[in-house]
Specification:
Strands 2-8-7-6-5-3-4 form a seven-stranded mixed sheet, sandwiched between helices. It is built from 17 helices and twelve strands. Helix 3 (about 30-45) runs antiparallel to helix 4, helix 6 packs across helix 7 and helix 7 (about 160-165) runs antiparallel to helix 13 (about 390-430). The chain is an alpha/beta fold. Strand 3 (about 240-245), helix 10 (about 250-260) and strand 4 (about 265-270) form a beta-alpha-beta unit.
Length: about 525
């Protein structure tokens, strides 16, 4: 396949010498020049070897000549873990037969498991039963065999969700806050049913705990700014927030905004696996600390933080705990009671729902959690988020949460299978690859890989038929290396070689095979 072929040819046959050059003196500009040199060769070369691979002797010679003035070095730093890498030298043996008979067909409808709680792909909604094959096949036709593996950026709307939304986009159009007639009552009931579905997904207790917003970015802003400004007004001494260096940009930027207003923010550095240490959090809590905010599942490297123990610590120290669960809700089990989560942000389009809708969970407890509103007007959403409710989006969000409650176990088994399949295959066939982030405490629908000698943007541009990402979709417009990877100890050069692969409920085995 083109993906593997390009990577193989960018690796350089003389791994030892090239690696010495790379580790000791390669710069981003140098890597880019190497890749441009190769891609030109790759596009123009018509000769193929017996195995169908493009001959690359000229590229190899030119590349080695380009780096012949490099300082001498060694691969020891790479192998001894200095760069926090999983290093593969292509010597892992796997049994590829085990992946062939696993009830995962290319049309995505035959994947099964025996869990009684995992639901069925064919048991919810007439649109799903009738049209899922058409959806997949029509998508392939329209996209000209382009394949979507960027599931952390967004997900396809589930056909069952669309089926539920359509009436509220056509003949059920009342304003949910019109309390004097049937049209309003009908919409209001639909909104409350959606709240209930979201509560069931996260084990919330009261419909008043869910505040609908336009998305996770607004939810995060409301949580941090709303909480901090309210409690700081009550007690001017309360002005300290704790977070990490690997949060989503909307958390980091909101914290920086609060710093301009006189608040103090502690940004904790994670370990090389991407996990924030509990002792670091504990040592950062002060008398003036208002709250701590830590992402549940990291959007770039897929690492799952120890949310339950963080929640327990915050409860013990009597500070509020917020988590950004936009990449976690509907994908990994969440119990806001057991985990002692006070506030939690969620996003509709990250769990197979519509874009433009999100929610902030605010626990009902004594004393009540108070926060200031960011948007003022008609007093909707308990006065915390004024504006006419988008009933159709809320209905879709609620239905997506309901479907995730049914399908979560099966979705997790599926993405874990794809993760292991791709990891085993790439480890066997490629040299010197890095699997970033903790490989155990993670969501397996997110795979972040560094391919040494392969600049990530060059690889993505040459693979326009496969949708991948070099980082967060919210920040990928910049060519700066990932701040998440830099924070966990990855060098700038190696961070530039990273790509993110995202698997989801609708990913087919055929699509995954395009990577192998």
């Amino acid at each position: 396949m083109k993906f593997l072929q390009i990577i193989k040819h960018l690796k350089l046959q003389n791994k030892k010498n090239a690696l010495d050059n790379f580790v000791n003196c390669r710069t981003y500009e140098h890597i880019s020049n190497i890749n441009k040199l190769f891609l030109n060769n790759f596009s123009s070369t018509k000769e193929h070897s017996e195995h169908g691979q493009v001959k690359h002797e000229n590229f190899l010679n030119n590349t080695l000549q380009y780096g012949e003035n490099s300082q001498n070095g060694s691969t020891n730093n790479l192998k001894n873990g200095k760069y926090n890498m999983y290093v593969s030298e292509g010597n892992v043996n796997i049994n590829e037969e085990k992946y062939k008979d696993n009830n995962i067909s290319s049309n995505n409808t035959q994947y099964n498991n025996n869990s009684s709680n995992s639901g069925s792909l064919n048991d919810e909604g007439p649109l799903w039963k009738d049209h899922i094959d058409d959806v997949v096949n029509e998508n392939k036709k329209k996209k000209m065999n382009r394949f979507y593996l960027d599931s952390q950026a967004t997900t396809m709307i589930d056909p069952r969700v669309l089926d539920k939304m359509l009436p509220y986009m056509t003949y059920i159009y009342g304003n949910a806050h019109s309390r004097n007639h049937f049209f309003g009552w009908e919409s209001e009931k639909a909104v409350e049913d959606a709240r209930t579905n979201l509560l069931n997904l996260i084990n919330g207790k009261n419909n008043k705990e869910i505040i609908f917003t336009s998305g996770a970015t607004e939810s995060n802003n409301l949580a941090l700014i709303g909480i901090c400004t309210y409690y700081n007004k009550l007690n001017k001494q309360k002005n300290h927030i704790i977070t990490s260096q690997i949060e989503h940009k909307c958390i980091l930027q909101t914290c920086r905004f609060l710093q301009t207003k006189g608040f103090e923010v502690t940004y904790l550095k994670p370990d090389t696996n991407g996990l924030v240490k509990l002792d670091d959090i504990k040592n950062s809590i002060k008398d003036n600390t208002i709250m701590a905010s830590f992402i549940f599942v990291n959007n770039e490297i897929g690492v799952i933080q120890d949310i339950e123990n963080i929640g327990n610590l915050c409860k013990e120290k009597n500070i509020l705990f917020h988590t950004d669960a936009s990449q976690a809700a509907g994908k990994v089990p969440i119990d806001v009671q057991k985990m002692n989560i006070d506030l939690m942000s969620m996003s509709g389009h990250k769990l197979y729902g519509p874009k433009g809708i999100g929610a902030l969970y605010i626990k009902r407890k004594k004393p009540n959690i108070r926060l200031n509103a960011l948007i003022h007007g008609g007093g909707q959403e308990r006065g915390l988020r004024s504006g006419t409710l988008p009933t159709h989006l809320i209905v879709g969000f609620g239905e997506a949460a309901k479907v995730c409650s049914l399908e979560m176990n099966r979705d997790e088994k599926k993405v874990r299978y794809f993760f292991n399949y791709v990891k085993d295959y790439l480890t066997k066939h490629l040299d010197y690859i890095v699997f970033n982030g903790c490989q155990i405490n993670r969501y397996y629908g997110n795979m972040n890989i560094s391919f040494l000698f392969v600049e990530g943007e060059s690889l993505l541009m040459s693979l326009n038929e496969i949708a991948l990402s070099s980082g967060s979709a919210c920040t990928s417009s910049t060519l700066e290396p990932s701040y998440v990877l830099r924070s966990i100890g990855i060098s700038e050069d190696i961070a530039h070689t990273s790509i993110r692969i995202g698997f989801n409920r609708f990913t087919t085995f055929f699509e995954v095979q395009q990577l192998c």
